[in-house]
Write a structure and sequence with these properties.
alpha/beta, 4 strands, 9% strand, globular
């Protein structure tokens, strides 16, 4: 199933029919993609999106980054709860959004290290950042 993990309905169907999933995304809220793929993402070293932090942070920037990570997880648990309820009822077993997305086979990420902060990723995450760029004349 070729799907976007922003709305995990495709992943719910893929799990129900035991089909492999290919995710196509730019980024997903709260770094759920990173946690679902079990990539390392320590909040004291990897800057959060929209934090305006660079890869070299001071102690106060690291604390701010850590607090942003905690607030993200709280906010995202409220946003993801309807999908968790839907998945749990449909699949007849308790599921979190991270568990649901962790069954993805391949993650096609529209990111490029030139524009985004480089961070550790798993081997099934493939960067295809150049697809949105125009041809050079």
């Amino acid at each position: 199933v070729f799907t976007d993990p922003l709305l995990p309905c495709g992943q719910i169907l893929a799990l129900h029919f035991s089909l492999p999933t290919v995710f196509f995304l730019r980024g997903i809220r709260c770094a759920i993609d990173i946690h679902a793929a079990q990539s390392p993402d320590p909040p004291s070293y990897v800057p959060r999106m929209f934090s305006c932090n660079a890869d070299h942070m001071t102690f106060s920037e690291r604390v701010k980054n850590f607090l942003l990570a905690i607030s993200e997880s709280f906010a995202c648990s409220m946003i993801a709860s309807p999908f968790e309820t839907l998945a749990s009822e449909f699949l007849q077993k308790p599921m979190t959004i991270t568990q649901l997305l962790s069954h993805g086979s391949v993650w096609l990420k529209r990111l490029d290290f030139v524009f985004d902060y480089p961070k550790p990723v798993m081997p099934n995450m493939i960067f295809i950042g150049g697809i949105n760029c125009g041809q050079k004349k």
